């Protein structure tokens, strides 16, 4: 019957990756490139914008487009390929919204399908760039560049949302995140 639909997991395609040769440290060079390209490009355009053009609108649109492309690429492609994490919103039949945070299960052989190099690239880009946007936010606020503040807030929000989503994927539920922070602080307190 041609109407039969098979439900296939998003991560099934990655199982054959674990069988491939592990000579290359970076298994997804295009994904790794674009993971950093849009992020770094938005920051570079923000820093050099006033030197390149006098049009604030052109700069703002370019930066927001780069940030949007980064958000989409990281959320939908690079997170899944580079570290095996993904998150999304699901609406149930009652119309209630549920956030789903998922981590790839370890394969049957017990081997990881993502490389250490890709993992470092992913997390370094994911953590560093939102911190840079926060610095830009304080800089715009204290230098009274109010028109740039809206652009910088977009950078903080879009990149911060991906950071939050992937931390939730890595750590687990909100309860686990809270208990992990409490346990860490408790251990630090006991050491002193």
From TrEMBL:
InterPro entries: TVP23-like (IPR008564). Pfam families: DUF846 (PF05832). GO terms for biological process: protein secretion; vesicle-mediated transport. It is a multi-pass membrane protein. Its main location: membrane. GO terms for cellular component: Golgi membrane. It is found in: Membrane. The chain crosses the membrane at residues 54-74, 121-142, 148-167. Belongs to the TVP23 family. This is Golgi apparatus membrane protein TVP23 homolog. It comes from Mionectes macconnelli. The lineage of its organism: Eukaryota, Metazoa, Chordata, Craniata, Vertebrata.
